[in-house]
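Dear support,

We are seeing what looks like truncated structure output for some complexes. This example has four components. We would appreciate it if you could run it in full and send us the complete token output so we can diff it against ours.
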Amino acid sequence: MDAAKILKKRGLRITKIRVAILETLAANLQALPYSKLQKDLSRFDRTTLYRTLLILRDKGFIHKALEEKGESYYALCSNCTSSMHNHNHVHFKCNRCSTVQCLHITNKLDLSIPKISINSIEIIAKGTCSACLLAD
Amino acid sequence: MDAAKILKKRGLRITKIRVAILETLAANLQALPYSKLQKDLSRFDRTTLYRTLLILRDKGFIHKALEEKGESYYALCSNCTSSMHNHNHVHFKCNRCSTVQCLHITNKLDLSIPKISINSIEIIAKGTCSACLLAD
DNA sequence: ACATAAATGCAACAATGTTGCATTAATAAT
DNA sequence: ATTATTAATGCAACATTGTTGCATTTATGT
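Here is the complete output from our reference environment:
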């Protein structure tokens, strides 16, 4: 993954923390909790991390996979842009090892409720991940 | 709604803040953000509110309908107990007026993913609520 | 009314969110 | 390559929420 090239292609300045965040997220299969990003990227100021996460989210590079107990989990986007965020996948959290992952599903989920206009649907599943199932 | 009676029936002590929380939530159709509870119940200590919310959640009286941007939204449970939490409903947030409500749906949502054991599924829908649609 | 277990309020601290502002860095223009 | 300009960064500061320990008060069964 060439984070610099990706940033450039999408018209964003190439800065150290942006490259670092993208590479950190790319290096993990799971979504990463804020606290982990904070720790891994502690060479940067906390405010900068905070603002950079906002920008990368806004521009469609990353998304918040889950927010739970005051902690946000971040993951790379696969197909988003500034104008279009489509996260048609399920966010799964393992109750045992606490990892969070994005699961791409084929099932199309349609939900319609009278008198309400629904723009987006988010699904959060919890259970036991394959690694923990195997560890039994 | 007789909060005291409900608490007693479920074996919890009847205290002012418990009654107040249950009545506050019962008085609203929507789920209430923590900040609103905090404000309405400011006559009680913040720690007590925090701990009481934990207890009422644990005992199945209330549930966290949504956690977003660091803010938790709470609502009454309809059929939960200490041992059984079943929230088979959708949590809906209106993007315009920011209200959060629990929508009871009939559609059964089944999701199965290979190699993973799923225990619970939560659905969060966002869009425009009926009141805001009418206000156009 | 009393004993006892539980709930409360207070103090204190941690983590995250958030803003303003001066400094520094990235890019475009020369 | 140097400079101008625009954006990003780091620092300080403060708000909100989460969390724990402990002394005091309250709810309830006897």
